[in-house]
Amino acid sequence: MTARSFTGLAAAPGLAFGAALVYHATPARLDASADPATERTRLIRALAETDATFAAHEAASRAAGQSESAAIFAAHRLLLNDPSLRERAIALVTELGQAAAEAIIAAAEEQALELERLGDAYLSARAADVRAVAVQVWRALTGSGGLGRRLVAPSIVVARDLDPADLAGAPRDLLRGIALAAGGITAHASIIARSLGIPAVVGLGDAILTAAASARTIALDGDQGLVTLDPPADDAARWRPRPCDRSARGATPRDPVTTRDGRRVRLLANVASPAEARDACAEGAEGIGLLRTEWLFLERPDLPDEEEQVALYQAVAAAMPDAPITVRTLDIGGDKRLPALPLPREDNPFLGSRGIRVCLSRPEIFLPQLRALLRARATHDIRLMLPMVTTVAEVRRTRALLDQARNQLVAAGRPCAPSIPLGVMIEVPAAALNAGHLAQEAAFFSLGTNDLTQYTLACDRGNHRLADLYQPLDPAVLRLIRMACEAAHQHGRPAGICGELSSDPQVTALLIGLGADELTCAPAALERVRAAITATDTRAARDLAERALAAEGPEQVRAMLRDTL
Asked: CA 522: distance to chain centroid?
């Protein structure tokens, strides 16, 4: 058969090869109506069974230190237990005589359409989650099973999209990779794939579904976003995973990392829990470049107190002894909401109260976190980082609150650090353009390329319909990265990268060429990025960066990276 290739978005790194399996997750049939009393009992039983499945996936994710995956399953449990969904499905059974499987799909579709009609980006994105939850209940009712039942050989699964429960429940020895027609790199399927170490390419377009139906085998490159149907048999070896050889690099975990010509590049980890910090330490991270504190606040009815926050920072620091821990202050708003801190509805939540804006407007929440950071700093190398900074005034206001928090601790006789390094995240184009002034106020920069990309290109990174526009390698984004790095260096400040790009070893040389001093990666990506750093020549990286900055679009930049590799 003739090989055919498709290019999409690199969502989870790694190479994979396997049998082609086209999977349709949407229910293909619905039961006929049956006795209402019997169907009501079946529906309630299926809801409980699905809740137990989600709870098991959530617990397994937390035990593995996969905080983002755990949060997804916790959110699905909340949707499943929403009284409006349950009561409507039961009413369709008892009042209209629908079968239980038909009723749960119909009730979810009503709710999803209502969410989409509200015009709120966050709520519209939840419509897909409501439908996904209903499909899991439908499967419990019909006994149809999910992806796991379809996998009988090592396979690359091709689908329009995949539910988190499908991925979490599939046998890892058989699920070699996923290729999705829809989705973006921040979609739930992508997050779960990265946490499980499953190579993934998304945003391939519907043509992949038709083409893969007649394919026998598929090779997938999750580093470059490439999917090849029926590759030549004599070419199969190059699609096998490439192991990283520690002995060949001559580096041991937590040794300083340098480029081939001796330039020092710090390799840090992006974590949300002590368990993830332990994984990062085992993988050789030199410290924590981003500790996401909002996960301590999510999916709970109350706010964590100061003592809980101190305990988290100390536990993470203990997992990375003698290493710097950079803590990002509470980052909510947009697509992250707290049950204990309901935010007012906004027409454009991603352009509204987010990140540092929320904290500065709610000092009763911000001050306990600042006090906890100052207390943890007294015994560990803790640093503070502000999300979504736009103006110099926001940094100065935070510094004033830090002084207030310190004075409160001193007055109470609590041990605390006299000062703490204060850095900012460059996620807004205005911050990159004004980086020279921000560098005079901040001790360091960390460039969050996920948000910087969506704000620069004016596209919601969670909107699947805009997946082709959300391109972190767009030259416009790269120019802002270069601008921020240059401004930091002019004032003697280090500049790091902490978005998705930093975990992609195919982009490492480009980021070094743009001026990055630090790369903050997912723990699973540390070894591959370390190998990419040590293989990089600084002069060649700068030449690559100049050519990328002059490109007309991200396609040309990706082609340059492929040619370089």
From this structure: 9
